[in-house]
Amino acid sequence: MRRRPHSLLTLCLCPVAAVWACDAVNEPEAGGPGVVIETSYGEIEGAPVDDGRGPAGDVLAFRGIPYAAPPVGDLRWRPPQPPASWDGVRPALESGAPCWQRISPDTSIWSRGELDRSEDCLYLDLWTAVADDAGPRPVMVWFHGGSHEVGHGSSLIFDGAALARKGVVVVSINYRLGSFGFLAHRALTAESEHGSSGNYGLLDKIAALEWVRDNAPAFGGDPERVTIFGQSAGSMSVCSLVASPLAAGLFHRAIGQSAGCFTPLETLEQAEERGVLLAEELVAAEDADPAEIAAAMRASPAEDVLAGAGSSGWSAGAKTVVDGWYLPDQPSAIYARGEHNRVPMMVGFMGDESRALFAPGPVLERPALRRQLEEQYGEAAAGLLAAYAAEAEQAPAAVPSLIFSDTIFGWGSRTWVRHAASAGGDAWLYYIPHAPPVFRLYLPDRPDLGGEGGPRHMGAYHSGDLAYVFGNTDLVGINWEDWDHEIAELLSSYWTNFAKTGDPNGEGLPEWPRYEPETDQALVVGDTAGVESGVLKEKLDALDRALAD
């Protein structure tokens, strides 16, 4: 692989060897000519970044790079295939289309407005600094969140230029979502050489990591220092990739933001049964030959697949499947046996994950809350009621969603680092109770939820860490204060240090100790940044007992 000058390029560029560097580099002009890189599939042209946050052209951006073939036609609901090679120079100046998904309403804090969706969506964006003599840089590969149902890797909040300026190569990908990325069905299993179906959106991530392995050096990246990081469903993906034998060797560090993968996942048989719900919306004769069913489903318009997933009830189920191939067992069992990919891990969660994420449940009085928890958790309900006594006193209806939230985010994060530590690995835990100042949420008049209606701040809400981690508080959002920008500098430095060395600590940063179950220490970022022991300990210990096998 090599990097060569475009016929219009004014930069001095030279072929790539082990180090991506030249004897001399001229500063590109803002908005000036592009940069051509030779990848394993053909040449692409990117462009200098001129975002006003650094010297013009100090970072190069390459957008809309295909890392897999379009998963359309006969490739719908199949593992990703390599992209076709091309002749000439392919422009890499615009991001690829978001994958098919429902459009979030404008009233949602996660809305990205109207999206030009497409099944031809397996593209990535990449940011890298202009060549220097520093040697190959670590690569950070980002997986966006969105419940494996919505989102895309090209949202402005994921802009990688600020991280690239800290000495890493940043890659952000699109991957198949919803029923396009996670449908399991016996007809699809029957045609698979692995006896598997579902998890296509996770296999997309493996294909992207294979592209990074093969192409990182052309962009100044080090394929031996690849960090995967993601938030929410992206963090669940990181967790399952660490557990998957298919991902072995493709990454060397892992960061999980707000979600693990330790609650039980559907088995292949269960997922196939749920797949029938969608198939019946698309295929007239569900008892037809499996090959005919698969062909008929693939012939269905994307609009019908999306609509059918919602109307049939398919979307109400889980996405990741214990399929016997990508995941040979429940992730919790793989981690407990120490059979996961042994890499350093950095994991954590926000202080108010549930506040905007889950709709309020029905009005509950304390006796009804107790009965509900006893039905769900049996004898462990008493411990949960004791741990959540303050919340149950103020707003009983909010307690079930708080318990569910703490299970997915808090308990999932602590369980993750405890598995890593038990296996002799390095892990770091963080907790962010600091509330970004950006959004407010309107609630109806619900005294049982602790308020009298009207707008309220959402606290340290789910995804409130994204602008900080990417160092983009000067690029997105409103009403940021000085401390917010300091947090962005702090977290983006921890994240890039971890990518470089496998340890987040560095000069000028508060010391962040490795996680040890005995001390239960975590980095806590609130009004200040420091280390605390026993974050949410009573609640997470009660959940340990409630969720014990």
Entry keywords:
18 strands; disordered N terminus; globular; 549 residues
Quick structural gist:
The protein is an alpha/beta fold and 549 residues long. It has helices spanning 161-164, 178-182, 186-191, 200-215, 233-243, 268-282, 290-299, 302-311, 331-336, 366-377, 381-387, 389-394, 399-422, 466-469, 482-501, 537-546; strands at 3-4, 35-38, 43-48, 59-66, 89-91, 123-129, 137-143, 169-173, 221-231, 253-257, 266-267, 321-322, 345-350, 427-432, 440-443, 454-457, 521-525, 529-533.
Account of the protein in words:
This protein has 549 residues and is α/β, with parallel strands linked by helices. The chain has a domain at 350-407 and 433-549. Helix content is 30%, strand content 17%. The protein contains 16 helices and 18 strands. The strands form three sheets. Strands 1, 2, 3, 4, 5, 6, 7, 8, 9, 10, 13, 14, 17 and 18 form a 14-stranded mixed sheet that branches. Strand 9 (221-231), helix 5 (233-243) and strand 10 (253-257) form a beta-alpha-beta unit. The longest helix has 24 residues, at 399-422. Residues 1-32 and 439-455 have low confidence and may be disordered.
